[in-house]
Amino acid sequence: MEKIRVQCVKNGPYEVQGTLTIVDANGKIVSSSESTTYYLCRCGGSGTKPMCDGTHGRIRFQSE
User: Is the pTM value of this prediction over 0.85?
Assistant: First the structure.
């Protein structure tokens, strides 16, 4: 089994690496692939949730 790596990008999204399937709250598969890197919204403002669209920069999201 391949490892999944999740890292918080300072003042930005979650960086997720590995082979995974992303499913939304309704059970719909958002993305599924072989080993790759995804950026998932952490600021809550993305228009393409759960994916990051760069909104964190425009709203000046500050991580702890």
Answer: no
Give the C-alpha separation, 29 to 5, whole Å: 20
Task: Say if CB 38 and CB 31 are below 8 A apart.
Answer: yes
Residues of the chain with pLDDT under 50: none
Q: Which architecture, in CATH terms, is 5-58?
A: 3-Layer(aba) Sandwich (3.40)
Classify residue 59 as left (phi > 0), alpha (psi -120 to 50) or beta: alpha
Run of H or E residues at 56: helix 55-58
- Given this model, what pLDDT does residue 39 score? 96
Per the CB < 8 A criterion, the answer to whether 41 and 61 are in contact is no
